[in-house]
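Colleagues,

For the teaching module next term, I've prepared a clean inverse folding example: a structure given as tokens, and then the sequence designed for it. I'd like students to try predicting residues themselves before seeing the answer, so please don't circulate the second half yet.
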């Protein structure tokens, strides 16, 4: 995978100008900042293609931590503002941060853009919408400004991931909570089962092509969690496994969690909330989530464990998460 270069923002000492650099190219912008958001009043530099336009916008929203970006004059003409999420007028274009990060075409593989109409099927006596099939390509890709690396998600395969999945599950740190310190053959069969189940999607998270974690995602309605929460028909959940120790730490772990949440909300715009049910004594994970938009709804008992019931509402995630 080609490593993407970071985009650098350098404000002048008075804060009224921005210099934006990517590799050998540089742009200049005049800016105004208010409580409502950030305004670029002017723009100078090489022509922007659609991908560079998106990446600069992503960096501006993240680095300036602004809820809204307005482009005037030459700035409006310089950027790709064709998507209907933009509000446009004569010589101006404006976009809310919460809308920008919901533009599915920016982050998802094109095979995921089409949505299955809401047709109802039955699984083990549970009625639910039919779920999409997912391939083995890169499903989600985003350059994370805070990390300086490209985060990708793809479906786990036995051929590529069987060895690391076995190693991760047999790490005592992981086995304490996942409770799958099984043989390679048994774990290979588990991965194949997850891949074959329409309600489940086993994901491998990578940073600059290096695999660091396994995220098992699912639709809640037909999952064991369904009877314990008030999930909507398209709401999703996840199980979290950060396998490589160098991927641990509050800042990194929250970045991985938010990336997977972003992916799930994008894959299905009808998902109104994400749900989780980690073991109630997994204090490290619960502490990580305290600094995200996940809400703790208390504890409940599965037949096999006591769990914390967690919920991440869509609106709260996009309004408050600094991706």
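(Answer key — instructors only)
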């Amino acid at each position: 995978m080609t490593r993407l270069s970071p985009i650098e923002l350098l404000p002048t000492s008075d804060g009224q100008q921005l210099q934006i650099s990517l590799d050998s190219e540089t742009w200049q912008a005049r800016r105004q900042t208010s409580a409502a958001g950030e305004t670029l009043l002017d723009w100078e530099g090489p022509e922007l293609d659609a991908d560079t336009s998106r990446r600069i916008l992503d960096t501006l929203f993240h680095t300036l931590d602004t809820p809204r970006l307005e482009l005037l004059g030459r700035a409006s003409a310089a950027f790709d503002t064709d998507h209907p999420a933009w509000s446009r007028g004569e010589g101006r274009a404006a976009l809310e941060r919460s809308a920008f990060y919901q533009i599915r075409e920016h982050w998802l593989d094109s095979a995921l853009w089409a949505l299955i109409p809401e047709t109802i099927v039955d699984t083990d006596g549970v009625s639910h919408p039919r779920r999409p099939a997912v391939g083995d390509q890169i499903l989600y890709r985003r350059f994370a400004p805070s990390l300086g690396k490209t985060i990708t998600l793809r479906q786990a395969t036995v051929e590529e991931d069987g060895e690391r999945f076995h190693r991760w599950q047999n790490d005592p740190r992981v086995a304490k909570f996942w409770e799958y310190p099984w043989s390679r053959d048994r774990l290979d069969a588990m991965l194949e089962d997850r891949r074959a189940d329409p309600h489940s999607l086993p994901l491998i998270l990578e940073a600059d092509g290096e695999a660091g974690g396994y995220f098992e995602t699912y639709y809640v309605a037909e999952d064991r969690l369904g009877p314990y929460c008030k999930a909507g028909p398209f709401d999703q959940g996840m199980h979290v496994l950060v396998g490589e120790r160098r991927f641990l730490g509050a800042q990194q772990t929250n970045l991985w969690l938010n990336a997977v949440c972003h992916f799930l909300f994008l894959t299905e715009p009808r998902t109104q909330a994400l749900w989780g049910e980690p073991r109630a004594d997994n204090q490290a994970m619960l502490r990580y989530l305290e600094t995200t938009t996940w809400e703790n709804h208390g504890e409940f008992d599965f037949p096999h464990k006591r769990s914390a019931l967690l919920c991440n509402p869509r609106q709260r995630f996009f309004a408050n998460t600094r991706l």
